[in-house]
Amino acid sequence: MVDLQGQYAKIETQINQALQEVLLDTSFINGPAVHNFQKNLETYLGVKHVIPCANGTDALQIALMGLGLKPGDEVITADFTFAATVEVIALLQLTPVLVDVDPDTFNIDVAAVEAAISPKTKAIIPVHLFGQAAPMEPLMALAKKHNIFVVEDNAQGIGATYTFADGRQAKTGTIGHVATTSFFPSKNLGAYGDGGALFTNDDQLAHTLRGIVNHGMYQRYHHDVVGVNSRLDALQAAILNVKLPYLDAYNEARKAAAIKYTERLQNHPKITTPHREADCNSHVFHQYTLKIKEADRDALVAYLNEQGIPTGVYYPIPLHAQKAYRDARYKEHDFEITNALVEQVISLPMHTELTDAQIDYICKHILQFLNA
Ligand SMILES: *Cc1c(COP(=O)(O)O)cnc(C)c1O
């Protein structure tokens, strides 16, 4: 699904040198590598504050802690996403409220969010799923009207650009009250281990978050709030600092691969290729995900696997149907789209090193299976 070796080979000298610097400097915790990466990412995103942390799941938890949410507060998020989003809501004893998604973009459905808002709603967590910007402008308008927070889960969308109705543009992760990301190795900006960060333009919130990631300390050994220990490792920061200048090129390579896949697959009656806005910068293709209709998706997965083609089913089970997150309030007819998507979706290999020959081989076998 990814080719981290091929990507490393192209930047090997730079990476090794950056690691060597940290080793010689021995500033393994919160040293210059972490600080430099923080500053460089702030500049890249055009956001006032980046707060590095240990991983993307911690980032979500810390965001909700920083907003001061209390047990029983409701947080709305998408039914069709990775479990980390709902996991942290439940972990903090907040009440997850899962809602359905848009059948074309796979992103959280604004009308479903609106219908789910109650007097207890304190936050919405849109996920820029598979790298495609969620509908931030209508979500921010809803949030303003109801006085609730928006936490962008940008783990899959780093580098994507959102365009507002008036033409103004902003990077995903800089629009909500706070945003989170992950530097898991397979993410668009991947470390060689775990890593994560929060972004915000709010000075006060940034201050709060910087304390929470460090045991709730704002002054050494003074613990003002309950915090956690969640730091971005200095070696990972050094790696990310080398990779950040390549992020746009990496995302362009993903987009180029996506365009080639779509060219070869778009006219088949059993395939729906991923939705893309005319402005193709709103999608950075963390995943390239097809919908397969009137064919056995699982048999296709098995067939491709036999041809040496890895695929992924993101995600095979709706969150509302997961044992840990079932709730009597959920009604199956509220999740029609997610219930259908989990049967239809298949994600193809997507990374920065895909060759035309690989894409041809993959598409040829998909078409062969569906035409048989
Ligand atoms: C990867 C991911 C996370 C979690 O990130 P980790 O760094 O693995 O903890 C959260 N949300 C989404 C949407 C993700 O894709």
Protein architecture, described:
The protein has 372 residues and is α/β, with parallel strands linked by helices. The chain folds into 2 domains: 4-100 and 107-245, Type I PLP-dependent aspartate aminotransferase-like (Major domain) (Aspartate Aminotransferase, domain 2), CATH 3.40.640.10; 247-371, Aspartate Aminotransferase, domain 1 (Alpha-Beta Complex). It contains 12 helices and 14 strands. The strands form 4 sheets. A 7-stranded mixed β-sheet has the order 1-9-8-5-4-2-3, with helices on both faces. The chain is globular, with a radius of gyration of 21 Å. The model has no long low-confidence stretch (mean pLDDT 97). Bound molecules: pyridoxal-5'-phosphate (PLP). The site of pyridoxal-5'-phosphate has 15 residues, from α3 and α4.
Care to give the gist of this entry?
By secondary structure, the chain is of the alpha/beta class.
Q: What secondary-structure arrangement, pairings included, does this model have?
A:
Elements: H1 4-25, H2 32-45, E1 49-53, H3 56-66, E2 74-78, H4 84-91, E3 95-99, H5 110-116, E4 121-125, H6 136-146, E5 149-153, E6 161-163, E7 169-171, E8 178-182, E9 196-200, H7 203-212, E10 217-219, E11 222-223, H8 234-243, H9 247-265, E12 271-272, E13 288-292, H10 297-306, H11 336-344, E14 345-348, H12 356-371
Parallel strand pairs: 2-3, 2-4, 4-5, 5-8
Antiparallel strand pairs: 1-9, 6-7, 8-9, 10-11, 12-13, 13-14
